[in-house]
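Model the whole thing, not chain by chain.
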Amino acid sequence: MSTVAIETHELGKRYTLGLSSRGYGTLREALVEAARKPLRRKGDGRKGDTLWALKELSMTIETGEVVGLIGHNGAGKSTLLKILSRITEPSTGYADVSGRVGSLLEVGTGFHPELTGRENIYLNGAILGMRKTEIRARFDEIVEFAEIERFLDTPVKRYSSGMSVRLAFAVAAHLEPEIMLVDEVLAVGDAAFQRKSLGKMNEVAKEGRTVVFVSHNLAIIQALCTRGILLERGAVVTDAPIDDAINSYLRTLESAASADLLERTDRDTRAYDETLVRQLEIHNPGGTPNVVVAGQPATIAVDVTEQLLGMDCQLTIANSLGQPVCTLDSKVSAPLDVRNGSLGPRIECQIEELPLLPGRYRIDVLVMAKNQIQDGLQAATFFDVEPGLVGERPTAGASSEGNVVLPHVWRLPE
Amino acid sequence: MEPPVETIRLQPTRGFSRVLAPRELWRYRDLAGQIAVRDITVRYRQTALGGAWAVLQPIGFMVVFSLIFGQVAGVSSNGLPYPLFSLAALVPWTFFANALLLGSDSLVANSALVSKIYFPRIFMPAGVVAAGFVDLGISIVILLIIVFAWGFVPSVAILTLPLLIAIAAMAALGTASFLSAINVRYRDVRYVVPFAIQMWLFITPVVYASSALDEPWRTLSAINPMVGVVEGFRWATLGTGNAPWDLIGVSAAAALVIFAAGLAYFDRVERAFADFV
């Protein structure tokens, strides 16, 4: 018999944009506002300044289901998780949640650097909703999973980042909620630990617990989830088996990339917006935009609206499942890099010999200046790599694994 | 047999449904303890002098006040040695002032937690006030040692200390939760609080005696809850003078009102913290 774990009914969340873009106003603004209020007629307020992060969202998740939430930035995934984990209240509708909810939103949030590993396990366990007796019962398991036995009584501020991430995940993974909400946490730690964490998540899912998963890494979502819910502008657009949901997400990504980038609203929320990415494309010298040949020189050109001092750019090339292939970062400089004021509002990145296997890729972009993120777009463009020669060797056929091809030379017995 | 699973309905709430939800607070009681323990541990571990700070602050003020107000200005201390007179008042005052200062910043300082994890938010200012009890305990012991060394013996009135501490704690928690909630929206609070605490010190009879005021102003002044606490502490620890029950009564009532109003305001705005912090 199946039971319902989560049911939402016309769930809505309204944010009031406004007063100040920093998210909090100053007392002065509020006082001025209050002084003006009596002079203003009712209903003549700032009506246009509200944003519905979620709108009449209704869905049902049954006990034991492992569901992936996918969608662009700003589609409402995180807002939904925040409501389900009770961090924030919905503005309309309701959500019925049956069972204890554990949320793994950004590991290590509750750590205090001055406390030792041992103290932090208790503190973090309590923060995640565990009783003291439960933590005590699982203490050894947690320590073992995190591999930090020797450093239990060392303050966490002396831990390497890998160690604190492992500890944080270990605490969270050992709480036994009926419903687990996971937001982009597996992107941390080294590869071995990521595998271990994934295994743990798999185990959790197999134990019949309900898991709701948010990640930009579609490969992880595809591996773990059975059902996918695609959100767009705060509403469910696709609710289907995970493969179908991912396919329909990829289609929306591509149609978004082909539209005018300035019209995109799913920009990086941390961004300062003094300059915006207007256009991004990759091409071979003299070639068609966004169709490139493996092994040939390629240029990625980023056009922005404003030229600012000390601009930097970070480009992440990801494969069609959203798994990053590589990141190109201008902040890490090399002798051949050029900074030239006469370039205008344009950033170029040149690749001597494109080492990608044939297939479809996308580029995520972050533009920085003045030590701030100015703009960020995921899937700013999609491009196709056509077969070619890398290191004078033809790129192998579709059967090859991975996305990258390295120029190489063999030495073989005759 | 699995225990029956409880279903919680998450929906827009109105009125006082959060702070005044005893089941909710009880469910998260371990967290309340952990937060208080964390605040205490961190405070003592980060500083070279650790627990000594709990004592140094009131004693430092005592020395300065004794020189300026006791010697130079010649403020009346009702016939008591001025250092004792001021220290007995400074001990509860320091507790109150620190609770206010740290408590009003507690939500913002823990914004990472507030925006990422659910727990009854009142635990943040409450944890700060609770952690202050340790400092207060240490400084009361030191105060009593100095009182004995000076040749005074506290009377049975010392048994009223828990009541006086409760008044101070209620006033501190009420004010701190109010301020911490405003601080989430308006960071101006950060700059106002240290200034307000200094002002508050001077409207509280710490450097002077409340008998310097004529009636009815003396009794009326006790709507500042720290008036009753401070005069009560002098009476209870020095074992002299008449019981200031009139002041304690008015102050207790005022502290209750502040406590209730502070929590009520906190409760009203709590649901939106994560959207602003």
